[in-house]
Amino acid sequence: MSYKFRNHIKNNRFITTHVYEQNKFIYMRPGRSASTTIVNTIKQDNTEVSLPYFRNRGTNEWLENVTDDEISNDYFVFTFVRNPFGRLVSAWEAFSKTGRCVSDFKEFVRGKGPLYLFDEDNSFVNDHWFPLSNYVEFEDGKQFVDYIGKVENIEKDWDEIKKRICCDGTKIAKRKIKPYDSHYDNETLQRVLEIYKRDLELFDYEF
After folding, report:
1. Tens digit of pLDDT for each residue in 130-156?
2. How many Å apart are CA 109 and CA 191, to the nearest integer?
3. Fewest Cβ atoms closer than 10 Å to its Cβ: which of 26, 28, 166, 206?
4. 160: Cα separation from own chain's centroid
5. How far apart are CA 91 and CA 157, in angstroms?
């Protein structure tokens, strides 16, 4: 039996994963991608099976035992993604307002430490800017989700999947995307292009 899905979640503590057992679907929940709106719209009991591994405290029985065949055959897996350039600015704005990262965006991208994009050991500091590709594919590039929606098209994409997750009567309004280009100079643009190269390729985004 194969356990790639289980191991992927366990080995990447930022991949928030909600399992809706009653209606057999899984929402891969990246930060700063309309995730709170989506969870509140679904309004169904679920288990955040990734939480013990994020906290480094205990395990989740479902995740420890679920096989890849069960994921493929028994569950509908979906996520929503967002333009990495806008997502990063949105995350920085939210965190800088509460003092959880430095107040200068360019410094945030360039520096290292707990108040920056990367920590001293070159790991991502927070799930709100963890690359979106991790919520969609394994390290070998094999995709494990059934549907990828885009925040930029959330109204249309939600209508595509809501019947599959027993949310027929729900709606999610199109979101207003704030401009982000003024936050970037050439140096930060090139650095973010490099960091999120796979996201940009996989989800067909550009600056």
Report:
1. 999 999 999 999 999 999 999 999 999
2. 8
3. 206
4. 19
5. 23
Q: Please tell me the predicted confidence (pLDDT) of residue 147.
A: 98
Q: Which two tokens stand for residue 205?
A: 């985004």
User: What distance in Å separates the CA atoms of residue 19 and residue 33, rounded to the nearest whole number?
Assistant: 18
Rounded Cα distance between 138 and 79, Å, is 14
Amino acid at 108: F
Asked if 127 contacts 14 with a C-beta cutoff of 8 angstroms, the reply is yes
Radius of gyration of the chain (CA): 17
Instruction: At 34, list the tokens.
Output: 């309309």
For residue 127, which of 17, 19, 43 has the smallest C-alpha distance?
17
Nearest one of 30, 58, 29 to 46, comparing CA atoms: 29
Q: Give the count of domains, the chain.
A: 1
Do the strands 47-48 and 76-81 form a parallel or antiparallel pair, or are they unpaired? unpaired
**Sign of the CA dihedral with 157 first, then 79, 82, and 191 last:** negative
In this predicted model, what pLDDT tens digit does every residue of 55-67 receive, in sequence order? 999 999 999 999 9
Nearest alpha-carbon partner for 19 in 6, 3, 4, 32: 6
Amino acid identity at 109: V
**Residue range(s) defining the domain that contains residue 77:** 4-203
Q: 10 Å Cβ neighbour count for 45?
A: 9
DSSP label at residue 46: -
